[in-house]
Amino acid sequence: MAHKIFILLLSTLGISSCLSTYDVYHNLSERPATISYLHTREITNMEKVDSVRIKKPVITDSTFASKGRVVKTDFHLYPLIVFYDWENIHDIKIGANFIREEEPQFIQESLKTEFNRSTVIFADSSNVSDLTLEVQVDTFRADGLYKQEGSILFVLYFIYWSFYDRIEPLTAHTSMSYQLQRDGEVLLSGETSHQLELDIFNIKSKNRKELAFHLNAVLAEGLSESIRMNIEDITRDVEDYLAF
Amino acid sequence: MRFAPLFFFFSIALLWSCAAPAYEVVTSENYEEVSQTGFERKFIYLDETLGRDSTRERIARSLNKKDWDALHMEIHSFSREEQFFLLALRLFLSEQYNVALQALDQLKDYDFNCQVQLLKTDCLYHMEEEKRVDVAAYKKKYQKAYDCAHSDRIKHIIRTRYRLLRYGS
Lengths: 244, 169
Fold this sequence. Notes:
- The structure holds 2 protein chains of 2 kinds.
- Chain A is α/β, with parallel strands linked by helices.
- Chain A has 3 helices and 9 strands.
- In chain A, strands 1, 2, 3, 4, 5, 6, 7, 8 and 9 form a 9-stranded mixed sheet that branches.
- In chain A, β6 and β7 form a beta hairpin.
- In chain A, α1 packs parallel to α3 (208-243) and α2 (103-118) packs across α3.
- The termini of chain A are far apart.
- In chain B, 30% of the residues are buried.
- Helices cover 64% and strands 6% of the residues of chain B.
- The longest helix of chain B has 17 residues, at 111-127.
- Chain B is globular.
- Chain B has one domain.
- By secondary structure, chain B is mainly α.
- In chain B, strands 1-2 form a two-stranded parallel ribbon.
- Chain A binds chain B through residues 31, 33-34, 36, 38-40, 43, 100, 201-204, 210, 213-214, 217, 220-221, and chain B through 38-40, 132, 135-136, 139, 142-143, 146-147, 155, 158-159, 162-164, 166-169.
């Protein structure tokens, strides 16, 4: 009887370990998270002094794929007859299918909003101005580790178990280069980059599915925060050049 | 064995009492202390304009404990707007979002540090049947409340609200 339980447990743990990568990926892609953020700079009531056309940005970061990546980087299992302990580690990288918005369009809209809210420059995507702002997203990534741990202990007729899923520190990094042009002539160019170590938001997850959604939300939030910082830098630089 | 049902109900009651409330009413006096403990929550802030320190604390306590009799004892001396705001809070915390929204409509969006605008958005959010709400639409409303608010504390409360929305709470 005991050896049957042993084999059953071992095979269950083995199969669930194989399925866990698919499971994590499925949970992450099922509910894409938003990268939209609250604009935090004050609204200006000053008169607009110039206008600029914002072209749709291009993401050149080849590591940012249309599909997010979930890779198992470590797995161990200690089957010690009366005590089982295992750990499963996945490396998660955000992809377009984990994000709700279409990224280039979102960045374009966010740039327009930031210019129109907080600067003396009017921004639009139509051809009303001879000034054009081209933005290229050179780095666009957010990644981190997802750990699943568990143990089972048999003592006589009793079974003690514990399962624990957690998110390890995550990072988000975006960098952008930009060019302000008038009739093809480059007036201003620059680069901006922001990398963030993400705080794990102190929020309760009811189950694995929700934890995966929260993990996705952390990654997306990190991306959106770094996008916000880059956009604020770009709008400040362009405003400084054109208005002062 | 005959105590099993009793034990079961006791466990459920214990779990229920441990669950953090979704919203918590805080005052200028206890905000710092409360906001740094436990899981992230949604705060409703009673600022210095609303009565004296001790009165404000009693109101916050009665709202959190849903002790409506105690609340009514306190608010009779307040202005019409303040009474409407506290009535709206009572209805909101009782999860009567539709009626709370009607009470909030009696006030201006920028009243009470723009929390009228914020609470209206919260009411609309809770009235959604579908839990996967249109985050973009709510972002616009939270942005409006954020731009309206002048206090850093209220701005932080609004940012946390929006963060929680992103996390599906």
